[in-house]
């Protein structure tokens, strides 16, 4: 079972910031910004390239918006990143969206 599936089933600890039916927001263990949250899909899908569930994809951005508002990131601004494939820096093969705010470098 992958790291994120273990967090979702509770066998591996994480700081959970928010969740709904389809997504769970956890703190990244190696933050690259003042706030670095990962929105992880509750079902195991390897990457955006393998994601076929339209409802899941459509809910992804509105979940980013919801979490950013809930965490008070709107005023400071926030950035979202989805790494897809090794060549793009994807390390964990389970769909996730990075949400970064505060002290972020330019992409
Ligand atoms: P990516 O490079 O897009 O696959 O991002 C994977 C992210 O998962 C990295 O930013 C890691 O720091 C983060 N990460 C790895 N293991 C954990 C963990 N156990 N809890 C929280 N974040 C993790
Ligand atoms: Zn998984």
Describe this structure as you would to a colleague:
By secondary structure, the chain is α+β, with helices and mostly antiparallel strands. It has helices at residues 3-9, 54-70; strands at 16-19, 23-27, 35-41, 79-81, 96-101. A five-stranded antiparallel sheet has the order 1-2-3-5-4, covered by helices on one side. Strand 1 (16-19) and strand 2 form a beta hairpin. The chain has two helices and five strands. The model has no long low-confidence stretch (mean pLDDT 96). The protein has a single domain (3-101), classed as 2-Layer Sandwich (HIT family, subunit A). The structure holds adenosine monophosphate (AMP) and zinc ion.
How are the SSEs placed, and which strands pair?
Elements: H1 3-9, E1 16-19, E2 23-27, E3 35-41, H2 54-70, E4 79-81, E5 96-101
Antiparallel strand pairs: 1-2, 2-3, 3-5, 4-5
The structure holds adenosine monophosphate and zinc ion.
């Amino acid at each position: 079972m992958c790291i994120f599936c273990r967090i979702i089933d509770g066998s591996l600890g994480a700081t959970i910031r928010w969740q709904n039916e389809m997504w769970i927001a956890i703190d990244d263990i190696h933050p690259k910004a003042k706030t670095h949250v990962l929105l992880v899909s509750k079902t195991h899908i390897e990457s955006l390239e393998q994601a076929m569930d339209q409802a899941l994809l459509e809910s992804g951005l509105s979940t980013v918006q919801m979490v950013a508002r809930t965490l008070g990131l709107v005023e400071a601004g926030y950035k979202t990143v989805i790494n897809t494939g090794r060549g793009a820096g994807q390390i964990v093969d389970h769909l996730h969206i990075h949400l970064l705010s505060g002290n972020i470098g330019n992409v």
